[in-house]
């Protein structure tokens, strides 16, 4: 039997089971069901987003996970990313890595960055740096920010505050809150630059404006070596989920 046909049968099987478990009320969702069952994999992904966020249906993360995983098998990279994020939220890094890798192969650069964070936490700095470089080159600003942090810490690359600053500037100029906060830290600590507290305060204010709450509280006790890549990634993903709820 052709591989793609196997995938379609599996998708329909899982979705029929879901229909038996979940009580669906909205006519809009029923249209989504039909489209998904008829092989529209993007519609299956959209339905997963609705279940994940409780849009027009009761929130059901398990249902969303099944839809994302099955849709991922049909090469929808963002579905692979969402499945990886859900596994990551459950602290299941084994499966998070599998799905982030699939998504990264599909050129979804946020997954490359997330996978890099997991490798970084496992102290596999070489692969983490490579993934952050790939993500940054693909215009993923979190990848640029994370790569900058590697240069600050000297993990997988020689310490290079000048290079770190360039990467944080790149992220901050695109209004990425974490990049602005890290750039503020560069100036507040005088890492490769003259200390400039006023400039640091302005950058922290910008970071606060764009959603980095620690900058709003003006917490300066953490040094650059203490920055947590995983915390930054999770904050970014939380903001994306909040944004999706408003759609």
State the order of secondary-structure elements, H for helix, E for strand. HHHHHHHHHHHHHH
* Topology, number of strands: 0
CATH superfamily of the largest domain: Tetratricopeptide repeat domain
Give the mean pLDDT.
Answer: 83
Quote the CATH topology of the largest domain. Serine Threonine Protein Phosphatase 5, Tetratricopeptide repeat
Short structural summary:
The chain has helices at 3-21, 27-37, 41-53, 61-72, 77-89, 93-105, 109-121, 125-137, 141-153, 161-173, 177-189, 197-209, 213-216, 229-245.
Question: How would you portray this structure in words?
Answer:
This protein has 247 residues and is mostly helical. The chain folds into 2 domains: 1-107, Serine Threonine Protein Phosphatase 5, Tetratricopeptide repeat; 128-233, Serine Threonine Protein Phosphatase 5, Tetratricopeptide repeat, CATH 1.25.40.10. The protein is 73% helix and 0% strand. The chain is built from 14 helices and no strands. It has helices at 3-21, 27-37, 41-53, 61-72, 77-89, 93-105, 109-121, 125-137, 141-153, 161-173, 177-189, 197-209, 213-216, 229-245. Helix 4 (61-72) crosses helix 5 (77-89), helix 8 (125-137) packs antiparallel against helix 9 and helix 9 (141-153) packs antiparallel against helix 10 (161-173). The chain is elongated, with a radius of gyration of 20 Å. Residues 1-5 and 219-227 have low confidence and may be disordered.
